[in-house]
């Protein structure tokens, strides 16, 4: 099985509104950009994410991210494989790239990523989302960070650098890709490791950064949340998990008896598993049939998730016996061909127009790489993801809820409905 969908939590964004060192020797120069962790007094007192400023740009960013997340799901999943990815991380890294797009490249990116063609509105939306997401309190830690890594001597328009700093907190770091591409790759990967608490390693594989690389745009997201009602380790037992209609494996199955929101739909049951403070939750969608995952996923990609979550959030809590497998998953993707096939081909060849970055049509995307991780255990959930957009010199080209068979899950920010992670579990591994 492949990795789950990291889902609707943040980011990092499937769904809707909530239920209530010195590298100078290799040509890399680090600036003052640091991971943007804001310790907010209100968040610490209440244990909840502090509401961000009300703005239509936020709503557009959240809706666009959710649509992009669901567009990607059928493309990234594969038979009998787990899945996890962060639509939020992908959206942010590509939004930084989009800020410099012009002409047909801008139109194609807007259509595929579900961005407004008003680039300033996209900037404002992600800037406000970012401010509302970075927090650290007793039960939940959420951090995001962005950076630009540019070839020494490559000049940018001041307007573009201003947008990167103002909207994404992404300072400009210099590198020598021409003469020291491997050293630069290692430094960027090290930055990603540090931002994700060593959960995302070797994001950019050898050969992706080459002598013709001119710019790498990176996003990293890290989430750690404790369950509001924790599972007791002593209650975890080996139990069967049905990987298909006739196949069963033994997995570590956690158990919890608690009062939670759970709802039965026509062909599946949904449950909300809140983290401490209630600001974030994992939502799990469990098909009735042991082999019903595909039918559930067909409904998922048709855009029904938001109505499912709304209905669940309006329901009363019930006494529930929850059986949930402990699992740890990692997924990684090279997204260039995927995004190109989805309608963004103009961003990858000689026809690319990113003149909003440098003033000339001298850059195109060579690859988009993404990696995500999730660990679900008795204490809670730890999840991380990172995305790199690599750009090169342009050339022409009491109810019982027993999750003992495959299911879909997501993590979202309940204050604004932004999806941070989304995935599915086909074969738990923990």
Give an overview of the whole structure.
With 430 residues, the chain is of the alpha+beta class. The protein has two domains: 6-226 and 328-397, 2-Layer Sandwich (Antithrombin, Chain I, domain 2); 233-326 and 400-415, Roll (Alpha-1-antitrypsin, domain 1). It contains ten helices and 17 strands. Strands 1, 2, 7, 8, 9, 10, 11, 15, 16 and 17 form a ten-stranded mixed beta sheet that branches. Helix 3 crosses helix 5 (119-133).
Layout of helices and strands, plus pairs?
Elements (H helix, E strand, L loop, with lengths): L5 E2 L33 H6 L9 H21 L6 E3 L1 H12 L4 H11 L5 H15 L1 E2 L3 E12 L6 H11 L3 E4 L1 H19 L17 E14 L10 E6 L5 E17 L3 E7 L5 E8 L5 H22 L2 E9 L1 E8 L1 H9 L10 H4 L4 E14 L3 E14 L5 E4 L4 E7 L4 E8 L5
Parallel strand pairs: 4-5, 11-15
Antiparallel strand pairs: 1-17, 2-17, 3-4, 4-6, 6-14, 7-8, 8-9, 8-11, 9-10, 10-16, 12-13, 13-14, 16-17
Helix pairs in contact: 2-5, 2-8, 3-5, 4-9, 5-6
């Amino acid at each position: 099985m492949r990795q789950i969908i990291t889902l609707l939590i943040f980011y990092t964004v499937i769904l809707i509104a909530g239920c209530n060192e010195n590298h100078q020797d290799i040509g890399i120069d680090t600036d003052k950009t640091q991971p943007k962790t804001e310790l907010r007094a209100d968040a610490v007192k209440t244990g909840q994410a502090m509401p961000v400023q009300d703005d239509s740009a936020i709503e557009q960013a959240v809706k666009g991210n959710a649509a992009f997340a669901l567009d990607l799901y059928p493309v990234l999943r594969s038979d009998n494989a787990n899945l996890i990815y962060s639509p939020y991380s992908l959206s942010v890294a590509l939004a930084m790239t989009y800020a410099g797009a012009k002409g047909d490249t801008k139109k194609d990116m807007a259509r595929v990523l579900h961005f407004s063609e008003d680039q300033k509105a996209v900037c404002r939306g992600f800037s406000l989302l970012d401010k509302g997401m970075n927090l650290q309190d007793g039960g939940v830690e959420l951090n995001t960070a962005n950076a630009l890594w540019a070839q020494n001597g490559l000049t940018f328009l001041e307007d573009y650098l201003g947008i990167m700093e103002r909207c994404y907190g992404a300072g400009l770091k210099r590198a020598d890709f021409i003469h020291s591409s491997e050293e630069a790759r290692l430094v960027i990967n090290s930055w990603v490791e540090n931002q994700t608490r060593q959960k995302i390693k070797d994001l950019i594989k050898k050969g992706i950064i080459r002598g013709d690389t001119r710019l790498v745009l990176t996003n990293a997201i890290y989430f750690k949340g404790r369950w509001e009602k924790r599972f007791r380790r002593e209650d975890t037992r080996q139990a069967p998990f049905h990987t298909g209609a006739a196949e069963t494996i033994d997995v570590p199955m956690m158990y919890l008896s608690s009062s939670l929101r759970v709802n039965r739909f026509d062909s599946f049951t949904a449950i909300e598993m809140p983290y401490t403070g209630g600001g974030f939750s994992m939502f799990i969608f469990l098909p009735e049939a042991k082999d019903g995952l595909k039918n559930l996923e067909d409904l998922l990609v048709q855009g029904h998730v938001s109505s499912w979550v709304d209905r669940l959030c309006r329901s009363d809590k019930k006494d529930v016996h929850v059986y949930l497998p402990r699992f740890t998953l990692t997924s990684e993707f090279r997204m260039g061909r995927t995004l190109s096939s989805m309608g963004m081909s103009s961003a990858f060849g000689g026809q690319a127009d990113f003149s909003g970055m440098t003033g000339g049509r001298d850059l195109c995307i060579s690859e988009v790489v993404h990696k995500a991780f999730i660990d679900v255990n008795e204490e809670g959930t730890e999840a991380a993801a990172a995305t790199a957009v690599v750009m090169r010199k342009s050339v022409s080209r009491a109810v019982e809820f027993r999750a003992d068979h495959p299911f879909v899950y997501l993590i979202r920010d309940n204050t604004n409905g932004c999806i941070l992670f989304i995935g599915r579990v086909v074969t738990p591994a923990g």
